[in-house]
Amino acid sequence: MKPEGHLFSHMPRLSKSRYLGGLQCDKRLYLETHAPNLATPPDEATRAILDMGTEIGVLARSRFPGGVLVEAGYRQTQLALEQTSSLLADPTVPSIFEAAVLACGVLVRVDILERVSGDSAAGSTWRLIEVKSSSRKKDLHLQDIALQTYVLQQAGIGLAGSALMHVNTQYALDSAGVDLAQLFTLHDVTEEIAPRLIELPEQLEGMRGILERPEAPIVEPGAHCHAPHECPFWAHCTKDKPARWIFHLPGQTRTIQGLREQGIETIDAIPQGTKLSRVQELVRANEEWCGAKLPHALRQVRYPVHHLDFETIMPAVPRFHGTRPYQVIPVQWSNHIEYENGNILHQDYLAFGTSDPREELLARLLESLGTEGTICVYSQYERSVLGALADEFPERRADIRAVQKRLWDLFEVIQAHYYHPAFGGSYSIKSVLPAVVPSLSYTDLEIQGGAVAAREYFRMAFEVSDWVEQARIADALRAYCARDTLAMLELRRSLLQKAEGRCT
Prior knowledge:
The chain is an alpha/beta fold. The chain folds into 2 domains: 206 residues, Lambda Exonuclease, Chain A (Alpha-Beta Complex); 209 residues, Ribonuclease H-like superfamily/Ribonuclease H (Nucleotidyltransferase, domain 5), CATH 3.30.420. The strands form 3 sheets. Strands 1, 2, 3, 4, 5, 6 and 7 form a 7-stranded mixed β-sheet that branches. Strands 11-10-9-12-13 form a 5-stranded mixed β-sheet, with helices on both faces. It is globular and about 80 Å long. The N and C termini lie far apart (79 Å).
């Protein structure tokens, strides 16, 4: 590799993550470089997604037998560069994983660098391969690969091409086990990134100019903060905004942007007569609203009232015969049953072991739901999971279709007939519950979200061998799923009391 020139030695170093952040926002680039402590740490759900990406990256290496990992960590830059240089020069190394390359003030770590030809550092040509856990090619992936390609070219590494490897969701697991050749799809993107390579020098020069400033550039928070990814500096950049800041208005970005262009900075300043959606009108009014038809909607249920919630996993690498990457697999359900006399019965199911749980889960569920009573859900997710089970087990399709006809969506009822200022424009059950039933929330639970529940189930079923730890995770999973169905039951009861007291 060419030595790093003195021209960039005094500048803060760019990286893939900083570059991609800079494409999203100049201020994000500056803060990630000079004040990373101001970022909000990733939450449990985000960490679960990152863990999935790491798993896919490691598995992809198996497609390249004999490949060697650069073991130096991301904070051991000099050691990583030295190890990479040594591997590039070793003709016995067919592929390098996590190769570290520095050129033009930009450091990249390449997922897979495959030797295409040659037997020396100077005479070899390589193929750059970026691995993504997503199921399709995205524009951001091409930007990522273009930067890596540019840095390798500037470092004097001969490239025969650049490629993207991602998960193939059409692949189905068979009895022979995971077929890595089918699990991954490999796209040559050499031609697609060519226009981006032309733009890169100017982009990098602009980013270096931003990093040389004495303080962060002024960038007003807006829609760009959430696309293509959530910016970790959102909380920092909006900490001084008023509680009723215009960007807290739910709905389409163009509506909010149009209001801001008129100089409107708070929801309360929106002029009367402005065209708003019904939800936006409710948020602007900032008052509890109980629709006249709420009592009628709530009285449509028939006892015994079941309250159903599924928890599912979507493994990137299929675990069960016939399943595909990211296919939704139900592994748990909870059912709180309310009888007409007020009595409540709770039943649940949680799969154990590494075998496909769906047949047993379905049998136990149909037994719990019986043939009588309304089945209360919150969103259409349960309907879709049941539909997939009907396709998988056609012999039970009639029973499942009968269950689907009994579904009653509490989410739709609340969205159509009730609003509370504490919702903040959101009708998610975690926003609605504390507003309507203050005594009940998720804050006392170890698991408080679906993404974390899926990750913990996966750990319990496939990674943890200690039975004590498995039992602890199982208890936490049962508590979380049960809270979802208890929340629906208590929401129904509380809303009916409100409706009968205020709407009739």
